[in-house]
Amino acid sequence: MIKISVIVSIYNSEEWLDDCLKSLTEQTLSDCEFICVDDGSKDDSYKIVNKFIEKDTRFKLIRQKNKGLAEARNEGIRNANGKYIAFLDGDDLLQGKKALEELFNIAEDNGLDFVTFDADCFYESDILRETSNRDNYYIRKKEYGLYSNGLELFCKMMENDDFCDGAWVLFTKREWIISNKLWFVSGLNPEDCIWSFMCYMHAGKVRHIRKRFYRYRIRSNSLTTEKITFAVIYGRIYTIREILRYMLTNSLSYREEKEICKFIDIILWHMKDKFRNLQVSEVYKFNGLSPVESLLARYMNFPALNLLKYNKLLYIEGFKHTIKNASGIIIYGAGKIGKLVYQYLKQERILENFHGFVISKLICEDETLNGNKIRCICDGELIKTDLLLLAVTEQYQKEMVALAEENGFIKILSIDEYLAYALEEYYG
User: Fold this and answer.
1) Cα 75 to Cα 8: distance, rounded to the nearest angstrom
2) What residues contact 414, with CB distance under 8 A and at least 6 apart?
3) Alpha-carbon 67 to chain mean position
4) d(Cα 271, Cα 232) in Å, to the nearest integer?
5) Largest CA distance in the chain
6) Residues 12-45, buried b or exposed e (16+ Cβ, 10 A)?
């Protein structure tokens, strides 16, 4: 019988993966399998896994197209044969040779749905230690021991400011995960927060042990230190929405409601800084939220709508200043964004310097748009000192910039998604 399936999530982890997998080979418990899920890595991570497979039959490799950490873990769960599941990220380490053995014995002896434990953090650099310090986040102040259900343990930890999420500090029973449909939400960032919360809400008997069985690497360009995008913000909006859904559809005591609301407050507190650091080009995506999600965003320290409007106007004013100083203007792209830019030029009455539309390849010689003849970018009569406005979506811009430069254009300005959204709102 396989006692434990360790699911190792891998994405471009070759720099750290050898140490990660060695920490598994050192475990004293032999009745295990180590399922390595390579989530579309662009490096040679899979070759490192194959070297371990050659020496140790407990290692298995699953390679898939990049679907994100949540789906990598789900794929591992689906393919697991062990009674219990442990999670390990490809840049982290298991700590202590008897970690898996101790966790298995505790879970078996007590008939637990999960065991939770602590973790150490270590840093790629001194700068990260200062800017992303999480030394005490995964170290509980006390050992909580055995509890009759996960909600009771959650409340006790929250009362002591001791609760932390993280899939890899939970050692769970596989059948319990499946029967309660505790799958990770595909594409969500962060995926751990709502998953951990739901594990506590659904669990029967659980136990915490104050042992640090995990070493969590803090590094640049990881999910926890990456730049702030809409996806990072949306992950928190989704999490709070689902926590509220749980509260409204379950009968909870005053104490339970209080501690769950306290957990929401913690998420909201972290949101404040994330909203402040959100890239301007990502803000427009909030327009696509559902009505309920928009309502939540407005109460999650999201900048006031009038402030966003002011920022958009400033953005457009900067664009207008650039356009007015151009001796001539050509719009490269005759689709939705190209039409928006033309409408802007028309409404701002700055068409006198507009020299027409161009596209990469003409289908019809007599093609026109808004009464203007559309020409090919390679047309030799085009004025190469004109400002070329690249009015296409981001996925095509790199290729079109190269084509424009090849044809002698030196003044090229790309219309990014945020400006396109602002133009649509004010001039569309």
Assistant:
1) 11
2) 390, 397, 401
3) 11
4) 10
5) 83
6) bbbebbeebbebbeebebeebbbbbbbbebeeeb
pLDDT of residue 225: 43
pTM of the model: 0.71
Amino acid at site 343 = Q
The upper half-sphere exposure of residue 1, i.e. CA atoms within 13 Å in the direction of its Cβ, equals 4
> From CA 79, how far away is CA 35, in angstroms rounded?
8
Tokens 């040779």 sit on residue: 97
The length of the chain in residues reads 428
Residue type, 393: T
Adjacency order of strands within the sheet including 387-390:
368-369, 372-376, 354-359, 329-332, 387-390, 412-414
Are the C-beta atoms of residues 19 and 91 closer than 8 Å to each other?
Answer: no
pLDDT in tens, 251-266: 999 999 999 999 998 8
CB contact at 8 A, 60 and 47? no
Q: Which helix (H) or strand (E) holds 210?
A: strand 206-218
| The pairing of beta strand 354-359 with beta strand 145-147 | unpaired
Which residue has tokens 């028309």? 346
Q: pLDDT, tens digit, for every residue of 335-369? A: 888 888 888 888 888 888 899 999 988 877 778 88
- Predicted pLDDT of residue 307: 47
Question: Which residues of the chain are under the pLDDT cut of 70?
Answer: 126-133, 220-227, 272-281, 283-284, 300-312, 425-428
E strands of 27-167, at which residues? 32-39, 59-64, 84-89, 93-94, 114-123, 145-147
